[in-house]
DNA sequence: GTCTATACTTCGATAGAC
DNA sequence: GTCTATCGAAGTATAGAC
């Protein structure tokens, strides 16, 4: 396992085709559909090329995760620059294909140790970024972050959007409008309470 | 596919062994580990017996889901009878193995139509029960259910517990204590606000 | 009800020619 | 870099003897 004989070539055209095919399979048919044969077929290539560019299927999947995380990060930066960053963050988090992607990753992570490790790394990294950004937003709006910590908001929004995306994937989205309305209301009231209690 | 020739026997000892083995595999090794060979091995039986008691693997899995749902329902009724039903509901929802079980089901549902159908049926059924129960609890406490609808609370608690269980499964539980504290605080304030605004 | 034996499929991965 | 050819493991499912 340690010594690998075959070549892996970086930044070649076919390699990129394979990664993109795998990413599409993940969203469209689920992680279970990412097999060497299906990925190659979707990319219009021969199955053996998968093993030319990646030593194992794990390597392919980890690469897909990296590229997906990079895209997500760009979207995050864009959201922060929007007029209403909270809304933009919310919308971004509830993006369907991205959330679907994450659901599949959760399943994969239960079977593949390397996927689990990569998932944890990316999740913590992204979470830290989100907390930092939300904390700054709260400070700008004069909210007491001891009463309403950024970590809590990020966690609640993340949980709601993730659960909603999962439920929608099999055709259920009851309750989320109500829940979101309640969260908004609660955040407003909390902010107002803090504002008045400081005066 | 429609006509099935072989026999399936109800309520036999080995059948129950197989269902229990499958359920343990689901929690311990993930849904992907539920194969005819592994289930039989875990049950100490021959692989072919799986196909004697269940026409297909889908049938086995659906049976596992049914028995799991039945257990869950019993736990729910028990939680409602507790001194602090809200807390009991929360604790029940965050039960690890049950939540883990659900995470695996989500993945399976993306691949197997019958699992998806069964999952939706059980989820809606359970959700309706929870809403009914929470609504009654809110009424007893004099909370205005127009401002704080039971559906929203059930959704938020469900999303938080599900996300927390998923994250914990791969070793992350940052933020949930904060989030839960904020939810508790928000619920209290909402209730208080309603109480005063009614007077 | 349970066993032996087996058909068929798909998977990950590799060897070696070109 | 890409192809033909191939292995061995594991999966679902069935036939038929006992």
Describe this structure in words.
Two copies of one chain form a homodimer. With 199 residues, the first copy, chain A, is an all-alpha fold. The first copy, chain A, is 75% helix and 0% strand. Chain A has nine helices and no strands. In chain A, helix 4 (57-80) runs antiparallel to helix 5 (85-93), helix 4 (57-80) packs parallel to helix 7 and helix 6 crosses helix 8 (150-169). The longest helix of chain A is centred in the middle third of the chain and has 28 residues, at 113-140. Chain A is elongated and about 60 Å long. At the A-B interface, helix 6, helix 7, helix 8 and helix 9 of A face helix 6, helix 7, helix 8 and helix 9 of B. Chain A binds a DNA duplex (18 and 18 nucleotides) through residues 5-7, 9, 12, 14, 35-37, 45-52, 55-57.
Write a short abstract of this structure.
The structure is a homodimer. With about 200 residues, chain A is mainly alpha-helical.
- Give me the count of strands of chain A: 0
Structural class of chain A: mainly alpha
Main sheet properties of chain A: none
- Ends distance of chain A: 66 Å
Overall pLDDT level of chain A: 87
Spell out the helices and strands of chain A N to C: HHHHHHHHH
Number of helical elements of chain A: 9
Radius of gyration of chain A equals: 20 Å
- Binned strand content of chain A: under 5%
The protein's oligomeric status is homodimer
Helix share, percent of chain A: over 70%
Shape of chain A: elongated
Provide the low-confidence segments of chain A as ranges. none
Pair with the most extensive interface? A-B, 50 and 50 residues
